[in-house]
Structures are given as structure tokens and as C-alpha cells.
Amino acid sequence: MKKKNHLAALLVVVILSMACRFSRPEAGGENTPEPTSVDSTAAPSTLSPTSEPQAQTLQFSIGRNDYTINVDDTPREFIVYVPAGYDPSSRTPVVVMCHGSNQHPNTMYENTSWVRKADEENIIIVFPASWKYPLISEPGVHEKWNTPGTAMDIPPGTELKDDVKFIRAIIDNLKLTFNVDENRIFASGFSNGGGFVITRLLSEMNDVFSAFATGGAGLLNEEATNSVPIQTHESLYNIIGSEDNKISEGQGISVPFPLGEQEILNHPNFGSLLQSTTAYLSLEMSYLVEVQPDFTRFTFDKSLVGSNNEYVFMMIKGLHHVYPSGDDNRTNLDAADLFWDFFLKHPKP
What we know:
CATH topology: Rossmann fold
Number of domains: 1
CATH class: Alpha Beta
Order of helices and strands: EEEEEHHEEEHHEHEEEHHHEEEH
Radius of gyration: 19 Å
Number of strands: 15
Distance between the termini: 32 Å
Helix content: 10-25%
């Protein structure tokens, strides 16, 4: 079923940044790289320490490769998966996949379908690691990306790492190492990692990334912040589950979340989410909607500034706070499949 509707909205927005479903694997300490891949030739690589990251060619093998680079005198970890069909004579797209709170790159490596998708579509996948911080709201230290929500939850005087510089350093190293298709570099994230993608990468690295996609995170009208621009014109795909307990707890919204078209539009939180996100992306509130028994998907693609960007919002029935990977939800929807199809529509000109 497809309809059109018009609403007007312009809200100052900030990201929802939350804890996540998976805990960090026990193996490895705070600055210890995860074990290398089954391919025994793939060894961890540590680049020379410097306060300013210097792009260098990485040693790599087909499959999993673990690296540590130094950014602002801080060792930062990431995994790069090189697909079996990688051909250095052909330009290859890249997807950066950011984990959620209290997770590790290995969580996304093992619990999403991006490795499978990499081999199917010949994509280089990057799984970067965030940093650990003490929080005001919870005891202990927690893996978190530098988002407005994280900034509000750390004790005064705690230094936040420059995660945008870290991601730029990774991309610079990839460009020296691989034949990267610079028109097809994409970013995805889950929960707090999705918050980082929207509030930081979308606004500060849209010169690098062509499109963005998140699960378990979205622009919600919480509080004004100067670090999130009022308007931009990028393409974003946002998935939320109707049984997402973390969003429920964080926003005080009872589950299950609404699934019907009008119920979503009239909901005080999710209607505002659609209004504020379309305003953020310089899009009209004119939409197409697909209503299925297991999901409702809105597509907004009428630009206010003559751009070709779009915003897709999908509410999935029965999905909890997970980055869907097929076997973890009743609809067998897989974010890697959905997001890759979306990314293919939005290369840089």
C-alpha cells in the first residue's frame, strides 16, 4: 500500500545513544587487538606512534585483519575484512560498521551479516573500536562513541576521544592500501554506534561517506545541541524494532511501538522523529509508505534543496534492541542486505 501525506515540521534534534544487547567478549584487554582470523597469515599490524595519524600502507591477507593505529597518542583498534574476490585492479566499495555501547568490533564481525555480504558483493568491511569511559549514570567503564549523548553522561573533566579523526585515519590508510572506490564509502552503526554515525559522521564526514544506515538509533527530539546541524542533505536508512527495550527505557515509551502508518505519524515520539529527521535531512514530509504484516516502511525523497537524497524509516514488528541479521528476528530481515541495496542507490556523483 502506498500513500502520500504532508506534514510540516522543523525541530532541533539530538541523537539517542544507548547501551546495547551484546557484551564485549572476554578475550583481550582494553588495548589488546582481537585474535587474527583463521587465515594464519593475517597478523595484527601496529602503525608507528604519532600524535597526528600518518597514513601508511597496511599489510593484509584475504579475510580478517586486525590493526592498531595511534591517533592523538592513543592506540585505536579496528578490524578490516578483505573479501575473497578482492581485485587490486578494480575499485572496491567500503562499509564502516560501528558497534554499540559495551561492544567491540568482534561483536559486529560475528553477529552481523556484513562478512557474508562482503564476499557476495566484493566489499571491504571495517569494524572500528570505540573507547572506554566512566559514566555518571552507570558504575564502571563503558565502550562508547563520542556522541552528544555520551558527552552529557561522562563526569566533568573526562576527555572524549576524537572518533571522527580516528575514522578519517582508517579511511586514509585504506586508500593507500586498497583500490578503494571513493564514490562508494558508506557508514552503518548500531545503537550508540548509530548515534555516532548520525551525529558525527553524517554531519562531519559527508565529504567521505556517500550514505548512512543505522539500527536501534534515531534522531529524537530530546535536547538542543550545537554539535548537530539543523539541516543537511544526506541519505539515511533507519531501522527500529517495535520491541526495542532500550529505546523504551531511554525515552519512556511503552512497548510495543506502533506499527500502523497513522499510529506512527500520530505518536508523540515517532511522529516527531519523522518530522525532525526529514527537517534535518532537508526533506519534505511527503512520503511513500509500505505496510506489511511484519513491518512498516516510510520513504521520504522530496528534497527542499534540490538534492537526490532520501530518508527511509522502518519499524519492524517484534524486533528487540538488535542489529537485525536474519535469524534474530521473526521476519528474517537482514540489515546488511537492506542497507547494501540502499547504499547502491546512493553513490557520490
